[in-house]
Amino acid sequence: EDSEQTSPYQVAWSVRETLGYERHESDDDNADDRSSRVTRLCTYFQQKYKHLCRLERAESRQKKCRHTLRKALLQAASREPERAGQLIQELRRATCARTSTSQARQRDAEPTTCSGTSKGEQCTNKALPYTRHCFQHILSNRSQQLFSSCTAKFADGQQCSVPVFDITHQTPLCEEHAKKMDNFLRGDSSRKVQHQQQRKPR
Ligand SMILES: [Zn+2]
Ligand SMILES: [Zn+2]
After folding, report:
1. How far is the CA of 121 from the centre of ligand 1 (A)?
2. How close is the Cα of 123 to the center of ligand 1, in Å?
């Protein structure tokens, strides 16, 4: 029932429409009217069934085609790998050109250059997928929700501004600060263990 624009289905739909139309017109429904409606419904479902069969057959035909193409490409690749590679690239380009939507989708996914600047100079890093910023500049995008600034502060009180992808912690830390925190906690716990060990003998 999707984007198929072939005629049989449209015919079937128009049959249904005429059925609905007739139902309104004939309020005095007699036996003749009923039987004619039933026959029309029958033809409608028959057409629908035929159409679905046709779709199914087309699908299996496509599957077979794809299978034979894959087999042929495999054979070609084992015989002449370079030529086969060229052919695959050409095929891919052809299919891309044919479906404009997938082309647009590819364009979206294609990495573009970061639109951010560092010290007045244009960033040359590749942008993250579906964004216009690289990892260093992703925080310039205020609508994004995945990255946040490191929540740690340096010894001089300055806020760390390294972007972090961490959706599990409430106070995300960059790699450097996460390591420092880990070391701190480890030292803390080992200190506690030492204290306990020192206390135990007493
Ligand atoms: Zn950048
Ligand atoms: Zn940090």
Report:
1. 10
2. 5
Ligand 2 center to residue 177 CA distance, Å? 5
CB 19 within 8 A of CB 37: yes
> How far, in Å, from the CA of 134 to the mean position of ligand 1?
4
- Residues β-bridged to residue 121: 118
- Mean pLDDT across the chain: 80
- Quick one: average pLDDT of 178-199? 73
Task: Looking at the CA of 121, name the nearest ligand.
Answer: 1
Average pLDDT over residues 52-68: 94
Tens digits of per-residue pLDDT, 82-91? 888 888 888 8
**Residues 49 and 43 sit within 8 Å (Cβ to Cβ):** no
Q: Is 113 helix (H, G, I), strand (E, B) or coil?
A: strand
CA of 120 from ligand 1 middle (Å) equals: 12
Rounded to whole angstroms, how far apart are CA atoms 158 and 147? 20
185 CA to centre of ligand 2 in angstroms: 16
Q: How many CB atoms lie within 10 A of CB 149?
A: 14
Kindly report, residue by residue over 139-186, the tens digit of the pLDDT.
Answer: 999 889 899 999 999 989 999 999 999 888 888 999 999 999 999 888
